[in-house]
Amino acid sequence: MAHMKAAVLTAHGGPEFLELRGDWPRPVAGDGEVIVQVHAAALNNTDIWTREGAYGLPGDPQAKAGWRGPISFPRVQGGDIAGVVAAVGSGVDSDLVGRRVVVDPAFYGDDSRDAPPVGLLGSEADGGFAQFVAVRADQAHDMTASPLSDGQLAALPVAYGTAMGMLERARIVEGETVVVTGASGGVGLALVQLATGRGANVIALTSAGKADVVRAAGARHTVDRGAGDIAEQVRQYSPDGIDAVADVAGGPFIAQLMPLIRDNGRWVIAGAVAGPVVDFDLRRLYLHNINLIGSSMHTREHFATLMDSARNGAIQPLIAAQYPLDGIREAQQQFRESQHVGKIVITID
User: Fold this and answer.
1) Does 166 reside within a domain?
2) Do 224 and 211 contact (CB within 8 A), yes or no?
3) How far, rounded to the nearest angstrom, does the alpha carbon of residue 324 sit from its chain's CA centroid?
4) 78 and 124 share a domain?
5) Judging by beta carbons within 10 Å of its beta carbon (0-12, 13-18, 19+), is residue 48 exposed, middle or buried?
6) Full DSSP string of 16-30
7) pLDDT band, residue 1 (cuts 50/70/90)
8) Closest by alpha carbon to 319, among 335, 337, 330, 307?
9) What is the rounded CA–CA span in Å between residue 14 and residue 64?
10) Which residues make Cβ contacts (< 8 Å) with residue 32, sequence separation at least 6?
């Protein structure tokens, strides 16, 4: 059997459980599958939290688990994948070989266009921190015509897919005022770019040192999350209230910002980096008919829309740093320090 290089997670825990292997079995295309030679794979919070087992379980929030429950080890992580189709299985058009592709990392509950995600490459199946990965042919989106680099394409699936899902589920439209929390992170910066692209007025919560980059991404105003009353700062920029919050942070921001949302507004949330357990006044929710929306990743329809934007260069992901595969521990350490803006990408020979 042919072998390849791969970064293999052997158990929940620290970076020491992430092993670089040169003898990992190279996947073979099954029926309806393609083999993608990985050129770039970006990092996400999902990679760190899955390694650490930080998702908890229903009834046991401290349990070690992946985002959908227990993880089977060993596991090749990496849900953000850009590369070239190297081989196809039976039932797949051989013309796909050589095509430049981005992989949709989601597994869906059924075959409909709006089915919810129920699994993820790099979590429920092996992902892209390797030289090759096997995926369903319909997960590989042809990006041969895209002007974006391999690193930029790899930045799209999880972060921009999640952001697209949030904006679609919250029905964000032109002219609305939207607060984006965690605006300098992968999903946050994607939200700023995508919401601005659809004509929304973005007020972005970030640190003072990253404000210029966030404004350059499209935010009309930035709020320094470390400088006093967050709600009062937002109110200065939108005294009549806001239409929606696109939230990747959770924590105290919910209680602070909920009173600012106008009647029939929306709060869409896809993360909890500022705290997963929150306390807020439910009266601010139901008395004003506010929609509280949980959003996990994207649908097939959302992802196809995102890929259309990437083919014509309408979005330009920002790359903060690039590492080779054998530098994945250092890459995750930089990611963990949260001093970067944009995506950290693993490039693979």
Assistant:
1) no
2) yes
3) 21
4) yes
5) middle
6) GGEEEEEEEEPP---
7) low
8) 335
9) 13
10) 89, 90, 91, 92, 136, 137
- Distance, in Å, from the CA atom of 295 to the CA atom of 288, rounded to the nearest integer, reads 21
Domain of 250: which CATH number?
A: 3.40.50.720
Same domain flag for 286 and 307: no
pTM of the model: 0.91
Tokens at residue 205, please?
């919560």
CB of 89 closer than 8 Å to CB of 29? yes
| The pLDDT of residue 225 | 84
- Domain match, 187 and 108 both: no
- CA dihedral 118→123→128→134, nearest 10 degrees, is -60
Residue 163 lies in a domain: no
What are the tens digits of pLDDT across the range 154-207? 999 999 999 999 999 999 999 999 999 999 989 999 999 999 999 999 999 999
What string of H, E and C letters represents the secondary structure of 43-74? CCHHHHHHHHCECCECCECCCCEECCECCCCC
Provide the pairing of β-strand 18-25 with 3-9.
antiparallel
